[in-house]
Amino acid sequence: MSILYYLRYRNKKFEAVSNLGEQIQSGAGHKAAELIINKGAEVLLTGHVGDKAEEALKRGGLKIVDGFKGTVKVKDAVNNYLSK
User: Fold this and answer.
1) Which of 13, 20, 21, 69 is nearest to 45 (CA)?
2) Which of 10, 44, 46, 78 lies 20 to 30 Å from 69 when distance is taken between CA atoms?
3) First-to-last CA distance in the chain?
4) Cα–Cα distance between 49 and 14 in angstroms, integer?
5) SS3 of 5, please?
6) Percent of the chain's residues with pLDDT above 90
7) CA–CA dist 51, 55 (Å, integer)
């Protein structure tokens, strides 16, 4: 599955961030992790993270919350996380 964009949530607003790593054959997970870290993210809400991306994200100090399925709306995932 290709991920074309990430959504950044900050100050109650969403911003679409293009996934430039999506077009490369090797190292896409690491490149995506680098992009997310460089955007200043603190938490990643996702369905799944590959091993290499997970290592890079954790080295970057991100908290990873996974297990969200494709039927979950982004807004609901964010509200669920913020309510805890």
Assistant:
1) 69
2) 10
3) 29
4) 21
5) strand
6) 19
7) 6
**Position 42, amino acid:** E
Domains of the chain: 5-82 (3.30.420.130)
Amino acid at 59: R
For residue 36, report the phi and psi dihedrals to the nearest 5 degrees.
-65, -45
**Is 66 in contact with 47 (CB distance < 8 Å)?**
yes
> Three-class SS of residue 50?
coil
Amino acid found at 4 = L
Task: Please give the model's pTM, rounded to 2 decimal places.
Answer: 0.79
d(C-alpha 64, C-alpha 50), whole Å: 12
Give the tens place of pLDDT for each residue, 14-35: 888 776 665 666 777 788 888 8
- With vertex at residue 74, the alpha carbon angle to CA 2 and CA 58, rounded to the nearest 5 degrees, is 65
